[in-house]
Design a protein that fits this description.
Layout (H helix, E strand, L loop, with lengths): L1 H14 L7 H9 L20 E4 L2 E3 L2 H10 L7 E5 L5 H9 L2 E6 L2 H13 L5 E5 L12 E6 L8 H5 L1 E12 L4 E8 L5 E9 L13
Parallel strand pairs: 3-4, 3-6, 4-5, 6-7
Antiparallel strand pairs: 1-2, 7-8, 8-9
Helix pairs in contact: 1-2, 2-4
The protein binds S-adenosylmethionine.
Length: 214
Amino acid sequence: MEFAIARERMVADQLRARGITDARVLTAMGRVPRHRFVEEALAARAYGDYPLPIGEKQTISQPYMVALMTQALELVGGERVLEVGTGSGYQTAILAEVAGKVYSIERIRGLADRARAILEELGYYNVLIHVGDGTLGWREEAPFDAVLVTAAAPEVPSPLVEQVKPGGRLVIPVGGSTAQILKCLVKGPDGTVRESELVGCVFVKLVGEQGWQG
Ligand code: SAM
């Protein structure tokens, strides 16, 4: 119950108040129990306005950033979405609420296993998690209606652009290792790509063949 109240406050104070308007995203953020995706010792801080550690030197992103990135994908329901960087699985759950099926790739096996277990426990059966290098995308399941990258890339990995359907969107933080810009790429029906910048941000590194070297 306490958590439900904290979640309602998070939606009102951190999301609506800062301009998140997509009703489906707001509903998802109000439903998913974020405290279940962090260690028990951090559960009381799960609805705070900041990222939190999830082990392996990785983080669960700030609620506002999760909402902003999801809103930028402009999902209406039923889409096939690729997520790169499963981490705790929290963003995966938000995507599972607003899209049809989520394909999520995580490079660290321990995180992927933990995320898979909690997502199953919570009943998110429309999620597939794969351990590997997400900078290469997921060729067997491509193309996707939308791609969301939750780690910072030095440049947009070309396999991810290739794996977006015409009319689809790719949202990704791009920049140096300490600060980045959140970018939204929209692929037109003819395959041309239009890019816009959403906000400054700080993410952990996207490590892989088309990212930073580990
Ligand atoms: N969305 C996550 C959440 O809600 O908890 C937070 C993700 S965390 C900021 C970034 C994640 O990207 C880390 O778990 C990291 O291991 C993962 N990562 C980094 N490089 C990757 C790659 N090449 N492929 C897949 N995952 C990667």
